[in-house]
Amino acid sequence: MSHKITVKKRTETGKNVNNRLRASGMVPINIIGSGKASSGSVNEKELDKLVHSGIRQSTLIDLEIEGEGTHKVFVKEIQRFPEVDRIRHVDFYKVEPGKKIVTKIGVRTEGTAKGSKMGGQFDHLIHEIRIKSIPEDLLESLVVDVSDLDVGQSIKVSELKVPASWEILVNGDPIVAAVLKTKALLAQERADAKEAAGDAKGKGGAKKGGK
């Protein structure tokens, strides 16, 4: 899915200018990259649509900048008015092809864990990871298939299938998803073990008595 928004360049800045922009249905923005920042504005309705389309910090967006053409960016920060659900200002970060950036990638699961069907408790523990990657290899989210996950099994960060250019910036090797044994399962296991031990004892006694 491609994400695009048109930017009008602006040279005037300041509180009054920004207020006039918002009154006209525009939102002030900054575009940061290569140690420089430039100012612009975008249509508020278009921006709302873009934000509500589910973009994340790792989502690459095409900014069509007036008189400059299209630049690849991602959202660095969104400022909102605290009293109303309205965007006040956005900072976009311009990416350079081949140059690694640090960002966060969402982690979502698909499928129903095999262990859940057996009465285990499925836990999705990590919902996003911090990575360093070239822009060309960014993903909006990482999808993890948990269908084969059985009771007592887990998927760790090191087991995730990710692009070769990614450096995953986490401490240790935490668990992303797991299927845990519930109290009911543990109680059933104890009961089964007790029953099996009783059967084995009974069979042993029967043999002894039969001699």
From TrEMBL:
The protein, known as: Large ribosomal subunit protein bL25
One of the GO BP terms on file: translation
Gene3D superfamilies referenced in this protein's UniProt entry, alphabetically: Ribosomal protein L25, beta domain (2.170.120.20), Ribosomal Protein L25, Chain P (2.40.240.10)
Family that this chain belongs to: Belongs to the bacterial ribosomal protein bL25 family. CTC subfamily.
Record-linked NCBIfam families: bL25_bact_ctc, PRK05618.3-2
Cellular component annotations (GO), alphabetically ordered: cytosolic large ribosomal subunit
Top-level taxonomy: Bacteria, Pseudomonadati, Spirochaetota, Spirochaetia, Leptospirales
UniProt-listed CDD domains: Ribosomal_L25_TL5_CTC
Residue span(s) of domain Large ribosomal subunit protein bL25 beta: 100-182
Source organism per UniProt: Leptospira fluminis
InterPro entries: Rbsml_bL25/Gln-tRNA_synth_N, Ribosomal_bL25/Gln-tRNA_synth, Ribosomal_bL25_b-dom, Ribosomal_bL25_C, Ribosomal_bL25_long, Ribosomal_L25_dom, Ribosomal_uL5_bac-type
Claim: Zinc-finger is one of the keywords in the record: no
Residue span, Large ribosomal subunit protein bL25 L25 domain: 5-92
Function statement: This is one of the proteins that binds to the 5S RNA in the ribosome where it forms part of the central protuberance.
